[in-house]
Amino acid sequence: MTPVDRGDVMLVLGAGPTGLAMARALAERGIPYQQVEATHDVGGNWAHGVYETAHIISSRKTTEFADHPMPADYPDFPSGKQMHAYFRAYAEHFHLYDHLRFGAEVTHAEEAAGGGWQVTFRDGTVERYKGLVVCNGHHWARSFPAWTADFTGEVLHSKDYKRPDQLRGKRVLVVGGGNSGCDLASEAARVGATADWSLRRGYWFLPKTLFGRPSVEIMTPWMPVFAQRLLLRGLVRVVVGRYADYGLPEPDHALFDAHPSISTEVFHALKHGTLHPRPDVRAVSGQTVTFADGTAATYDLVALGTGFDLSYPFLPPGTVPVVGKVPQLYAGMLRPEHRHLWVMGGQQARYGIGPLLRPLGQLLADWIPLQDELTVPLGELLRRTGEQIPTTHLVDPHAAIRRMALGRTLVPLLRWRARHLGVTYPPAAISAAANRRPSSS
What pTM, to 2 d.p., does this model score? Predict the structure, then answer.
């Protein structure tokens, strides 16, 4: 099939929070773009992937977009329905629906021989775009422990959990100490016949509030990470006590070396005896689970809070290498082999991502024209200038905001460096490209 040529139009894949913020930045800068969403609504996970009782774990202030605050009557921890309504309102306010195509799933995308990216959709149509802004999210490719294949009872991943009736009256084993695991454990403790909670290691569990404020707001931009650790460790010891007093293992890592879990309810359930901690799973036979300490129990249902894998199934294998949970991307968004392939949202902030998305979108809108001036991928220029690929998928929000601001101010320096290395187009070629009338869809 001959592809429809979209000229200089960028394609934004996904209309979750990250995709909406990137589309807003491109529109603001006047960069031609089209946005596609495989489902039929905006909001990503908040539209189709959360349970009916879900509330955010980060606070309203650390989740809202900087350019569009949440309604003043929203609580500190808005519900899933409120979050979905907020993202719809964001898309309406900035007229993002004007460039959105719903039910448009990308099944394959590859760099075209003559430049740009050739994209194939589920309905068989093929289109060529100038570039891709990949915002397909990281809360959809479910991660399953290998032993679940041997369990003959029901296995339920957090992505497929929607309402308490799925757990009601059942002997439930919850696996995983992340935020989804905490929510599942709290729900099972309320409605399950029994509720056990298996943890393969020690985690940092923080209460949702401290001194009447959301815990994530205790950390301020001027406070270095070591000071944040000292403060929160001290507060947890005073407010919560020792994890061992709840039957939980002590953390096997420093605070913030892994994503901390935010929950107040699990402490309540553990102290009320409605939730029972268990160590890691060692073996499974039928519906009986044997744990690392040699104890065993029989369950009707295993509820998995075991997280998700990063996946880009529409790109050729190896296009975006992932080591563990870390996408191998320069500046967290670029590969050195490809022009105009922008992979956004592959990292996780320690709390709400909202304040990061506005500066990230502005950086993208600054760097797209810079890429147009280069004969090599911008990721390759960053590699040559000494940029390093991140070693962790976790992001310090305050440091990231400062880094993105620096990335914008350094555009002239990057342009100078590119000229020095001889990897820019002649000025006449840049001018001709800038004056070419872009195609529109």
Answer: 0.93
In 3D, which of 147, 158, 151 has the Cα closest to residue 184? 158
Instruction: Tell me the pairing of strands 131-134 and 10-13.
Output: parallel
What is the secondary structure of 211-234 as a DSSP string?
TTEEGGGSS-TTS-HHHHHHHHHH
Token pair in block for residue 87: 């993202």
pLDDT band at 428 (very low <50, low <70, confident <90, very high): low
Predicted pLDDT at 431: 62
Q: How much of the chain, in percent, has pLDDT values that exceed 70? A: 97
Query: What does pLDDT average to over the chain?
Result: 93
CB atoms within 10 A of CB 418: 21
- Structural domains in the chain plus CATH codes: 4-140+309-435 (3.50.50.60), 146-304 (3.50.50.60)
Q: Helices 17-29 and 80-93 sit at what angle, rounded to 10 degrees?
A: 10
Lookup result for tokens 């290998």: 146
Is 9 within 8 Å of 81 (Cβ atoms)?
no
**Which backbone phi and psi does 367 adopt, to 5 degrees?**
-85, -25
State how far the Cα of 179 lies from the Cα of 306, in Å rounded to an integer. Answer: 10
For residues 53 and 80, give the distance between their C-alpha atoms in angstroms, rounded to a whole number.
Answer: 7
